[in-house]
Specification:
The protein contains 7 helices and 5 strands. By secondary structure, the chain is an alpha/beta fold. It has a single domain, classed as P-loop containing nucleotide triphosphate hydrolases (Rossmann fold, 3-Layer(aba) Sandwich), CATH 3.40.50. A 5-stranded parallel sheet has the order 2-3-1-4-5. α1 packs across α7, α2 packs across α3 and α3 packs across α4. It starts with a strand and ends with a helix. The site of shikimate-3-phosphate has 9 residues, from loops.
C-alpha cells in the first residue's frame, strides 16, 4: 500500500484522524513532528527558540525524505510542511496526499489553549489564523483529496479517506 499523508493547518485534526486511519488500515502511524522532536532531542518550541524556524524547516524536509523511503505508513505532517515546493514534491512522490481543513472558528477553538506551537506565540486570533490560512491555501490545495472536517466525527473523516483509497488509492 502507498503511504497516506495528511496535511493541513494546525488544529485541522491530522494527528487524531491519522491515528484512527492507521488503526483502520492496519498501518503504522508516523507523526512527522514527533519524529523531528525525537531525532533532535528537543521540543519544537526549543528548536524554534534555539535555532530558528529555518532550521526547523530543514529538519522537517529531512524527516519527509526519510518517510519517502517507506511504504504503507499513515503520516501526519506539521502544518507548515507544505510550504516548501520541494517538500510538496517529496510528499506527492511518497504517497497519497490528503488535506484536512476546518473552519477558522473551529481551528481557533481547538488552538485556544495550546502552548506547543511557536508560530501561535504572536497571536491566535481568528483574524491571524485566517491570514495564515489564506497565505497557505494554494499549498494545501495541492492534494489528491481535501476534506472539510468541520462538524464531522473522526470516524466520518476516516471513512471518507478509506473510501477514496479503495477507489483511487
Ligand atoms: C507548524 C505546525 C506545527 C509544527 C510547527 C510549525 C506550522 O505542526 O510543525 O509548530 O508551520 O503550521 P501541527 O500542524 O501538527 O501543529
Amino acid at each position: 500500500m502507498r503511504n497516506v499523508i495528511l496535511t493541513g493547518f494546525m488544529g485541522s485534526g491530522k494527528s487524531t484522524v491519522g491515528q484512527c486511519l492507521a488503526r483502520r488500515l492496519g498501518s503504522r502511524y508516523v507523526d512527522l513532528d514527533a519524529l523531528i522532536v525525537s531525532r533532535a532531542g528537543a521540543s519544537i518550541n526549543d528548536i524554534f527558540a534555539r535555532n530558528g524556524e529555518p532550521h526547523f524547516r530543514q529538519l522537517e524536509t529531512e524527516a519527509i525524505r526519510s518517510i519517502s523511503a517507506c511504504d504503507g505508513l499513515v503520516v501526519s505532517t506539521g502544518g507548515g510542511a507544505v510550504i516548501s515546493p520541494v517538500n510538496r514534491e517529496l510528499l506527492h512522490a511518497a504517497g497519497v496526499v490528503v488535506n484536512l481543513t476546518a473552519s477558522i472558528e473551529e481551528i481557533a477553538a481547538r488552538l485556544a489553549s495550546d502552548t506547543e506551537r511557536p508560530l501561535l506565540r504572536e497571536g491566535r486570533s481568528p483574524e491571524r489564523i485566517a491570514a495564515m490560512l489564506a497565505e497557505r491555501e494554494p499549498m494545501y490545495a495541492d492534494a489528491d483529496l481535501r476534506i472539510d472536517t468541520t462538524g464531522k466525527s473522526v470516524e466520518d473523516v476516516v471513512a471518507e479517506i478509506a473510501r477514496f483509497l479503495e477507489t483511487k488509492g
